Amino acid sequence: MTITTDTWEQTMPEPVLQIVIGSTRPGRVGAPVAAWFAEEARAHGGFDVEVVDLAEVALPMFDEPNHPMTGKYVHEHTRAWSETIGRASAYVFVTPEYNNGYPAPLKNAIDYLNAEWRHKPVGFVSYGGVSAGTRAVAQLKQVVTTLRMVPVLDAVHIPFVQQHLDDGALTPNDVMTSASKQLLDELVKLSTALSAIRD
């Protein structure tokens, strides 16, 4: 049976982008920020989009007896987390800045796994006050490169995020919208390029 290019493209599944909400505290801003970015990502059309809320995943503090590099998971919550993360081709971490760093639940979620993250691009949407979460992102880039992830240079940084919230929803400005498109464009390029390495 001959498969034409058109047929092949139709049978190939869309790559999955997971938008991970890094804050778990009640009243967090991360949920409306992630909801806005998910809308942008779906409109962009480069990925199937999933929002992964760490508050709902509710991972305990890392409790596996074996190093994640072994992939020998003994807990069901770890196996479920591995399956979730393993199906994505790219990620966006939505993060605030806590004391010049990023939230502990996000670091915990990253540390649970190893191979599932490898050779995949990751972008960042950060928010906060005057710094817009940029110091949290700088630290996260050090972490993800150790896992052989590829951080995207382009990012969305939202300063004074409370000014963009109205009745629990984020109202973006032109800078945020433009930055989100650049980030998504780069994620598509990198995801495509890195797929050969993953395969």
Care to describe what's here?
It is a single chain. This protein is α/β, with parallel strands linked by helices. It has a single domain, classed as Rossmann fold. It has seven helices and eight strands, in the order H-E-H-E-H-H-E-H-E-H-E-E-E-E-H. Strands 1, 2, 3, 4, 5 and 6 form a six-stranded parallel beta sheet that branches. A two-stranded antiparallel ribbon has the order 7-8. It is globular, with a radius of gyration of 17 Å. The protein starts with a helix and ends with a helix. Residues 1-5 have low confidence and may be disordered.
Topology, please?
Blueprint (H helix, E strand, L loop, with lengths): L4 H7 L4 E6 L8 H15 L3 E6 H4 L18 H11 L3 E6 L8 H8 L9 E7 L6 H13 L3 E2 L4 E3 L6 E2 L2 E2 L3 H25 L1
Parallel strand pairs: 1-2, 1-3, 3-4, 4-5, 4-6
Antiparallel strand pairs: 7-8
Helix content: 40-55%
Corresponding CATH architecture: 3-Layer(aba) Sandwich
Q: Can you tell me the CATH class?
A: Alpha Beta
What is the 3D form?
globular
Main β-sheet description:
6 strands, parallel
> How confident overall, as mean pLDDT?
94
According to CATH, the fold-level topology is: Rossmann fold
**Beta-strand content:** 15-25%
CATH homologous superfamily heading = Flavodoxin domain
**What integer value in Å does the Rg equal?**
17 Å
The termini sit apart by 24 Å
Q: Based on helices, strands and strand pairing, what is the structural class?
A: alpha/beta
Unreliable stretches covering 5 or more consecutive residues:
1-5
Order of helices and strands: HEHEHHEHEHEEEEH
The number of helical elements comes to: 7
Number of strand segments: 8
Tally of distinct domains: 1
